[in-house]
Amino acid sequence: MTLYTFGDSHGGGYPDHGWSKILLDNISISIHWIGPHTCASFGVNKLSILDISKFGVTDGDIVCFSFGEIDVRSVDKVKDNYREFIDAIVLRYFKAIQLNVSQFNGLSIIVQCVTPVAERTDVFDENWPALGTDEERKIYTEYINSQYKTMCSEYRYYFLDYYKEYCNRDGFLDITLSDGHAHISEPKFIKLRLMEILNKI
């Protein structure tokens, strides 16, 4: 059995990312960074952005989708209607996932939460593209995660939710568990929540 991750950099793709450090008994992990795509673009373009059937996925495997952090950084352009905006992109996201999944007969599907917001003072890059204040982006992140959880229940997918474990006391990304930027480096809580899911599969 193989666990495949597909998505933006938070699903892997960086050498120091937490996913690259996770080892599992009897399950190999195959990490696939699709590029800096949003869940919105995946939801619109679907298989032209990601077709998991082209990566060796077979029935019986586990597939984890990881998109959304980049979306959160752009939500502020529609801040007055952010719930409606997020609801729409999440719905399309899950439809794109289902289109991928429908090519198989026996996959276990995981949707990964969006990681806590990295505070601008911790990013160390004044050119890092992020609209809205840190507090606003935190609100958007918590809302998109709530919608992911709801949709996972509807679609009967597993929701990989390690959000709170990686927050500092102010609710932002704990920099001591990160790569010094916006990515999680310490995998212990990802693995903890992942193992809870794997014990149910």
Describe the structure concisely for a colleague.
About 40% of the residues are buried. Helix content is about 35%, strand content about 10%.
Walk me through this protein's architecture:
There is one protein chain. 34% of the residues lie in helices and 12% in strands. It is an alpha/beta fold. The protein has a 5-stranded parallel sheet.
Keywords:
Rossmann fold; single chain
Query: Helical percent range?
Result: 25-40%
Q: How are the strands of the largest sheet arranged?
A: 2-1-3-4-5
Can you tell me the overall shape?
Answer: globular
In the CATH scheme, the class would be Alpha Beta
- Helices, by number, come to 6
CATH homologous superfamily classification:
SGNH hydrolase
Listing every helix as H and every strand as E from the N terminus to the C terminus, the arrangement reads EEHEHHEHHEH
Total strands: the figure is 5
Distance between the termini: 12 Å
Biggest sheet architecture: 5 strands, parallel
Give the overall pLDDT as a whole number.
90
- The domain tally reads 1
- In what range is the share of β-strand residues? 5-15%
What is the topological layout?
Elements: E1 2-7, E2 28-33, H1 39-45, E3 62-66, H2 69-72, H3 82-101, E4 108-112, H4 120-123, H5 134-155, E5 158-160, H6 188-198
Parallel strand pairs: 1-2, 1-3, 3-4, 4-5
Helix pairs in contact: 1-3, 3-5
